[in-house]
From TrEMBL:
Name of the featured protein: LysR family transcriptional regulator
InterPro entries named in the record: LTTR, LysR_HTH_N, LysR_subst-bd, WH-like_DNA-bd_sf, WH_DNA-bd_sf
Gene3D superfamilies: 3.40.190.290, Winged helix-like DNA-binding domain superfamily/Winged helix DNA-binding domain
Signal peptide: none
PANTHER family to which the protein is assigned, alphabetical: TRANSCRIPTIONAL REGULATOR, TRANSCRIPTIONAL REGULATORY PROTEIN
Source organism of this protein record: Paracoccus aurantius
Length: 305
């Protein structure tokens, strides 16, 4: 059995299409199809079933998958054993919710790239849960702890969120001294049917059940607050990037959430992935603490209560 054929099998299983696998591997789809057919012929088994949605694993393919993943992990481990514990190299794809991807990961990854010139980092910012079994990412950051799957889950850090508005909006609208005053203000939040994780249902905790301006992206919501479009829940670590945005009702509305680092279970055997996870975890803890500490120096006049 040829390892390269197994590698192609794994990529088709994860991409669920010949064209998607071809793009990931840098070869054309027809070549991917021929290599899959060659592997099926060598094994005497049908590995995929073609469906309207793409290529799904057949029962024989499902049985082969964990063995192919073990071979992939063993090969990666062999490379690490020969290269030693020097600089981190190769590609790392990190999946993250867009708030983390926009306001935390650029600084963290810049330091990683500076310390490890041979490392190529891809940041995939999507407002949904990543599927690590399909290798959409090498590791993912999530806002809630997954309850199923062959995963390694690590709690990274807590972070805070508050209701906020821009100075221009706050000066031109009625004063806010309590939750009751919010009824007379424009609210910014998530599109209700596109909240992919219950931890993101921020407005419910303010007592508001409706927002006039909504987006599936928390970064878009934050920029809408910065533009003076209304009031919204904003990550404390994002506020230093938004001049003029101030927290309000800090003594009445304060949310706490956590970031979780999620990895595929097989990656525990990889020293490279362990080192990358450790560096990423440390970077996130330090960057959240640094940015939130900047708000601690706000003067009373800058915090609307």
């Amino acid at each position: 059995m040829d390892w390269d054929d197994l590698r192609i099998f794994l990529t088709v299983a994860r991409e669920e299409s010949l064209s998607g696998a071809g793009k990931r591997l840098g070869i054309d789809a027809s070549t991917v199809g021929r290599r899959v057919a060659r592997l099926e012929g060598a094994l005497g088994a049908k590995l995929f079933v073609k469906t309207p949605q793409g290529y799904a694993l057949a029962p024989e393919g499902e049985r082969l998958l964990p063995h192919a993943e073990l071979a992939e992990s063993a090969l990666s481990g062999a490379r690490e054993a020969l290269s030693g514990p020097g600089d981190l190299t190769g590609q790392l794809r990190i999946g993250a919710p867009d708030g983390c991807a926009n306001y935390l990961l650029p600084q963290i990854c810049a330091k990683l790239c500076e310390n490890h010139p041979g490392l190529e980092i891809q940041i995939v910012a999507l407002p949904r849960v990543f599927n690590l079994s399909r290798r959409e990412a090498d590791m993912a950051i999530a806002v809630s702890q997954p309850q199923a799957g062959r995963l390694v889950v690590q709690r990274l850090t807590d972070y805070q969120l508050h209701l906020a508005g821009h100075d221009d909006y706050l000066k031109s609208h009625p004063p806010i001294t309590s939750r009751d005053d919010l009824r007379g203000h424009r609210m910014i939040g998530y599109i209700p049917d596109m909240i992919f994780d219950r931890e993101l249902d921020y407005l419910t905790e303010t007592g508001m059940d409706w927002a006039q301006l909504t987006s599936n992206s928390v970064s878009v919501q934050t920029q809408a607050v910065r533009a003076g479009a209304g009031l919204g829940i904003v990550h404390d670590f994002a506020i230093p990037f938004c001049p003029g945005v101030r927290r309000i009702l800090t003594d009445q509305i304060s949310l706490r959430r956590s970031f979780w680092l999620i990895r595929h279970a097989d990656d525990r055997r990889s020293q490279r992935m362990n080192r990358l996870a450790e560096a990423l975890a440390l970077g996130i803890r330090q960057e959240v603490a640094r940015l939130q500490a900047l708000l601690a120096v706000e003067s009373p006049s800058q915090v609307h209560t």
